[in-house]
Amino acid sequence: MARLQWNQTGEHLYETGVDHGVLYLRDATGAYPKGVVWNGLTGVTESPSGAESTPLWADNIKYLNLISAEEFGATIEAYTYPDEFMICDGTAPIAPGVYVGQQNRQTFGLSYRTVLGNDVELNNFGYKIHLIYGATASVSERAYSTINDSPEAITFSWEVTTTPTTVADLKPTASLTIDSTKVDPIKLQAFEDILYGSDDAMSPLEARLPLPNEVALLLS
Predict the structure, then answer these.
(1) Exposed end of the chain (fewer CB within 10 Å): N or C?
(2) CA separation, residue 72 to residues 69, 164, 173, 205 (Å)
(3) How far apart are CA 172 and CA 161, in angstroms?
(4) What is the DSSP code string of 155-193?
(5) Which are the contacts of 167, defined by CB distance < 8 A and separation ≥ 6?
């Protein structure tokens, strides 16, 4: 066995940025049939919770640890949001350009990318595609202030909770991550044509969010 080596060229990896945000509303069947661009996305903070240990003691020793279920949550931050997200934020139209709040909140899915870099190719090394399922946005605070000599755009922020969806042979999950540096490029392109849509004249596709089992089938 060769001796371990540290800090080899090309192995100084990092992850940065957020882009290519897409919103997918969930329909009554549990599918996410249509994606819309989310411009102005500034940040997604993933916040898993749970997976806490509860020690059990017996015979004067720690007998074992029981681990609680893990949940996935997130915070979405943006300068703006697509009109389709209004129903996810508890807003419904009652006339053209007129909206009421405190309505039922639609469940949605989200995809976004982060940049993978290294010491050789910098930010061109690759990227990760993050998928979120079964998301529900909580109420959010909006602070409006006067325009002054140091103007700032309002930043919207939503706390998101999720309900996991099924995965074959694994526990249900609300999040998937696809690493472009480890996936076959041809399969990745086919997957992105589904995720973002395709303008191919022979077989155009409308953007949709495939469920985890389909993602596994597409990229396996």
Answers:
(1) N
(2) 10, 8, 8, 30
(3) 15
(4) -EEEEEEE--EEETTEEEESEEEEETTTS-HHHHHHHHH
(5) 173, 212, 213, 216
